[in-house]
Amino acid sequence: MGVTIKDVARAAQVSVASVSRVLNGHATVTQETRDHILAVMKQLRYVPHEGARSLSTNLTNMVGVLLPDLYGEFFSEMIRGIDGAARLRGLHILVASLHGGAEEAAAAIRTMRGRVDGLIVMSPHVDADLLAQNLPEHLPVVLVNSGAGGGAYASVSIDNYSAAYAMVRHLAACGHRAIAFITGPADNHEALERLRGYRAALADLVPGAKEIVYEGDFSEQSGTRVGAALAKKRKRPDALFAANDMMAVGAQIALQQAGIAVPRDIALAGFDDIPVARYVTPALTTVRVPIAELGAQALARLTQRIGHADTGIDSTAATLDAQLVVRASSG
Fold it and tell me: What is the DSSP annotation of 69-133?
């Protein structure tokens, strides 16, 4: 048989209850005692039995994460932030992607029941009603970048409107007047807020300028299509602002392949500041979203609602600031 919690208690010369409190992260144990017990566990190569621990605490120590996709730098950064914050708290994550509509989202949510202590959800298809219909009433949930919570669920989001407004202000300050915009998906809250910020800034800061809006879906391919279409036009906008970096990179590649120089012939800007944004040539002007921090904040709020102590954290809602990052592509 392997090493048991009783063996650890005996070797550390403490009670079984003290070892249990260390395993479950109780604050009533002094740091000296905690360090001593952890050192004995390491020496004995003790591995906690998660099943037994779950029975005693009624927790699985597993957190569910539902994202629209698992592909791309944005979502890998998001998962990195969630996973890092989870490991600091001794938790594991169970990740699933939601490629379809509301029906698939509901099915994915139902598969999490009984397997996780709480859920982090980022999906345009998930609202308060869908969650209420498919989850136990008291399961903690944190929504990320969603306008669907309506106060019923905790949320973490970015001020997409103000950040898009700031980008248009920057492009206008560079002398650009005909500023075009590539949208994100029509059912995506973030995309709609960025479009709203673009429209408001254009009306306020470039009086008389017409909106030039192209449809996109956050994919590099949709940006490539817009870039290729612009390359064929005799008269092009002064600047192109894409609702995310992947579309901006796609547009940049298409324009450059057609012999159109960025920013000499057309300025370019994106949103998110994914790692590749600084490595394309010219480097991409963008809005820096603290993606990993967004994930970490969501996990922190979720664990507080589950019952883990995260003092000083508002468990209801948080809005993180985004930062304008000016690089060569905007001229």
Answer: -S-SHHHHHHHHHHHHHHHHTT-EEEEEE--S-HHHHHHHHHHHTTT-SEEEE--TT--HHHHHH
